[in-house]
Amino acid sequence: MITLTGNSLTLEQMKEVLFNKKKVRASEESLRAAQMSREAVEKIVSERRVVYGINTGFGKFSDVLIEKENVKDLQLNLIRSHACGVGEPFPEVVSKAMVLLRANALLKGFSGIRPLVIERLIELVNKDIIPVIPQQGSLGASGDLAPLSHLALVVIGEGEVFYKGKRMDSLTALQMEGMLPLTLEAKEGLALINGTQAMTAMGVVGYLEAEQLAYESELIAAMTMEGLNGIIDAFAEEVHVARGYKQQIDTAARIRQYLSDSLLTTMQGELRVQDAYSLRCIPQVHGATWQALDYVKEKLEIEMNAATDNPLIFNDGKMVISGGNFHGQPIAIAMDFMKIAVAELANISERRIERLVNPQLNDLPPFLSPQPGLQSGAMIMQYAAASLVSENKTLAHPASVDSIPSSANQEDHVSMGTIASRHAYQIIQNTRRVLAIEMICAMQAVEYRGVDKMAVQTKNFYEKGRELVPSMKQDRIFSKDIEKLAEWLKTVDFSQFMRTLKESI
Q: pTM for this structure?
């Protein structure tokens, strides 16, 4: 059981909840803080103090005063009117992350929402009642208003959910679990939707996949090194310490460890003096990706524990301040950074694929074909990789540099962070397929070189890959192989492998 405090949620804990079905609960201290904040809101309502979002309209309507008897209708109207999301739903794991992150943010005690509503969000997480949330429609700077409104619909028994493998009306799912819809009171609708949880949830899931993919990319690159008789000298510790980047040093160390007992790598001057950059510069390029991912991780873990709604309530209601913590710029820039970083893993991988299949660049059979000419072998796999890499370049265009004013120019600068996070996620999926293609080609190349000469760790990875994708003895529908291997790379438990590797370095 993971205890939410509003201040201490980690990516590792998110992974446990999202992928290992770990349950969560709210700390008693945090619930007390939320209750005190709620009491401050109720006092404001009873005293008829004019405070944005509690008894006023929203956005450009912030100057419109709402009478006490209408504050519940105000919240209901807010949720319904703002549920304007369009397009395909977010993946279920992302929507679940969104609910979890919203609950954690509200537990900070600055939002004025009843503990009852927070506990309902936690129930949704623990019972896997997952809101259907369209992916498109957020500007990422009044919070993720449209996506979070679809989340909030579930709390009041409206909208749709994924539950027990089916898509259904929220009310039906709640009734199946013996839960009643809640009626939102003053400020609670706004507290549910004013935040960055859509872009952050998408970013968290993307980061967790990107981190695993970055580790896998190194092991696949090591196998390519063997398939091309790569020169190991370029990975010598002295070279990378001389430059000084920790992530570059670490990447080189992992590659050396993978290939420490390989009989397929060479020394400089043995076959050639230097390798091409796509082999020789693996630590520099992959290391730079790790630098970016470390930055992304830092920003995500801050945002996961941030108060991002508006207004925020301090000092038992004595201070209620309209600020801009809902603005998604920190995450927007981080997501754009992740897009570029992961796209580069695909970029360099595709160049290694070319070196594996191009007979002018190696001494292997052309396109790794068992019968060159009669059979095309891996020729079009390289085409597919090139197409995915080119698509990544388009998706990597930064979203955070764009802004379109909204709400009658009251909200005149927005982050587009949710677009950035969605595009980052697509780049990750594309990159995984490129790496799957590299792995297929590398496995074929090492067969020509001699599997018995492989390093222990790369051979182990090769054997796992061969359980899914057989050797190319005859042309076949390679699309199926690529997708099968990509899905395995996404779902394989790589954590134990990495723990063993870290202990041995």
A: 0.94
